[in-house]
Amino acid sequence: MTDEEIMNGADYSASNIQVLEGLEAVRKRPAMYIGDISEKGLHHLVYETVDNSIDEALAGFCTHIEVTINEDNSIIVQDNGRGIPVDMHEKEHKSALEVVMTVLHAGGKFDKGSYKVSGGLHGVGVSCVNALSSHMTSQVFRDGKIYQQEYEKGKPLYDVKVVGETTLRGTRQQFWPDKTIFITTEYKYDILANRMRELAFLNAGITITLTDLRPDDEGNTRQDIFYSKDGLQEFVRYIDSTRTHLFNDVIYLNTEKQGIPIECAIMYNTAYSENLHSYVNNINTIEGGTHLQGFRMALTRTLKKYAEEQCSKELEKLEKNKVEISGEDFREGLTAVISIKVAEPQFEGQTKTKLGNSEVAGAVQQAVGEALSNYLEEHPKEAKLIVDKVILAATARVAARKARESVQRKSPLSGGGLPGKLADCSDRDPANCEMFIVEGDSAGGSAKQGRNRHFQAILPIRGKIFNVERVMWHKAFEHEEVNNIIQALGVRYGLGEDSKEANYDKLRYHKVVIMTDADVDGYHIDTLLMTLFYRYMPELIQRGHLFIATPPLYRCKKGKIEEYCYNEQQRLQFLLKYNDGQEQGVATQRYKGLGEMNPEQLWETTMNPETRLLKQVTIEDAAGADYVFSMLMGEDVAPRREFIEKNANYANIDA
Ligand code: 0RA
After folding, report:
1. How many angstroms does the Cα of residue 56 sit away from the middle of ligand 1?
2. pTM, entire model
């Protein structure tokens, strides 16, 4: 999640691009190279650096990568590869190390015959990391010597020199992100851990150690060692670990077709959503593309063929009931990860995460088709379970369509379709408009009075909505609160083939804000609503329309000084700043719910765009989100409790 201010400032269009030479260009337009200068861009520096070591591992020369967050928020990435070459670069008349560190896009170009497959989304190279660091130290351990060069804002402070001897081999990079460039320079352990775990799953056999040397409240440091022997087989089990499996096997393939390395793992569960995670060169292709096309095609054709050959009776019965199986029925309750490596990927789409290479579709289709039909032939019992599930999905879908059509016919555009509880705004330009989904009728009342009715609409919902993870998705249409949300938004929605009907251009509000109490119940409702949007309207999130409001927890008052505090830390800071850290002498009002604030307070603290703090919901790590949502909404209590205890500030206060 990032703050909305950050989003607004970070967008550079082609018209902003100036021709600038070298690393100055990176410092002048950092967002063009690393996406943005918020928390996301800050963490990107680590990914970019680690990717170089991953490339060395994929080339077969490196087995261990150590990532360390130091107390001063500098980062060390050290590997046991061959070490970046330090000899003179013929054309540049500089050490090869200096070229890698100071010339844009120079990384990896020495090694003729091998191509750089890894690389962050922007694939900009470690010289960008150097340019955006106030200080950076590169060390290369080669031939018994330690070579070193240091830089400030990307500029070398001296020529590469030998500073000692070593028995080690490899590369060590340490950088201090420039505080004058990044909005924040504080690293989040969990964000890095998620990416390192993902990289370990995607690149079986590499050990990635993550160490946080910043002591926590109890003075402890943290470390995780990520290693996967079985790659995607373990990844798909991890993602699906809190779901009930249809059967225990992972259907797995690891092969090469038409020169394209393809790895894929498939698992079936008893739930109803489709969870496909795809990667190209270790990059999560959120928008899919030709590899996913090939995968879907193979799945549909292979299962269809198998069912026609082995389960003709069941199919006849379907036909009699006028039910036709469609592509999405084959993917209900399917969790799959597909990872391929492409020498020259073409990334397209809104966020440049859609693979365009047309040759990939056929290769993937062939690989997956072969592996899947082998599996079905060899496992008739499991194959029958899959076919039965597909038939059930098709039957339910046809019943659902009838229910849905009766609801969605009342489209807001055909007039009179808006839910009665919606207090709409007067502006008709969706780009200006916000809709607050508010928990409880009393808070809804405060919000209606406190809002700016010109551009802010209020939709109160009553208590907890249903748990999307545990019901067939079409049940949503029988649920009043969910229907109200859909009708107010003006967007149709659906999964799979039906998602084509979702028309986001008709969205009536460009900001959809979830506003709930700052307590455990509110947190639960946030999660239920986020799950609803994540599963049924992922594009709403991908297009950046979903936000969470942050109401304050306290109002602290000392004499004439009055401040709202949004977390416990801010309250303690208030005490330190104005009352020597003492509780006695400070009047503290604890807000238990939105309803306790009067309309003016609610406007001032939570709704006024000038003063509020909105968290934007983003899908940075789709596989991680898949795991977390299924875990939070699943039947297993223990991991849920652990997650909430670790993550929710609210839990500490209410517990
Ligand atoms: C090109 C050639 C060689 C090593 C590397 C790149 C290399 C780059 C990085 C970046 C981080 N860790 C790295 N490890 C190795 C070696 C060429 C040779 O020794 O023959």
Report:
1. 6
2. 0.80
